[in-house]
Design goal:
alpha+beta; 100 residues
């Protein structure tokens, strides 16, 4: 079963450009992971400092490989002082079967 999550954070005022640069570089790496199916980055239209990242991984093993990627730690270390939260807020999602 796929592993799906939403990561949320808010860039501190004045850090918007650096956060955008970091997430763009990180997205390029994550999208190359064998088990990554989706890594879509959004900002709130009425408040572009608010970020939502929709992520889908092939399965739990692919998600664990993502967590252990060598670039994840440095990305989070660089991001943390630039955001309002202590860390990205992760919400894990389960699909709802809407088929008749």
């Amino acid at each position: 079963m796929t592993k799906t999550l939403l990561a949320e954070f808010t860039a501190r005022e004045g850090a918007e450009d650096e956060v955008a640069r970091l997430i763009q570089e990180y997205a390029l790496k994550v999208r190359q992971e064998e088990g990554n199916l989706t890594f879509d980055v959004y900002t709130k239209a009425a408040g572009p400092r608010a970020y939502w990242i929709f992520e889908v991984y092939r399965d739990e093993d692919a998600f664990q490989a993502h967590l252990n990627a060598p670039y994840g730690g440095p990305f989070n270390a660089a991001l943390t002082p630039l955001i309002e939260e202590e860390a990205s807020v992760l919400t894990f999602l389960d699909p709802l079967d809407t088929r008749p």
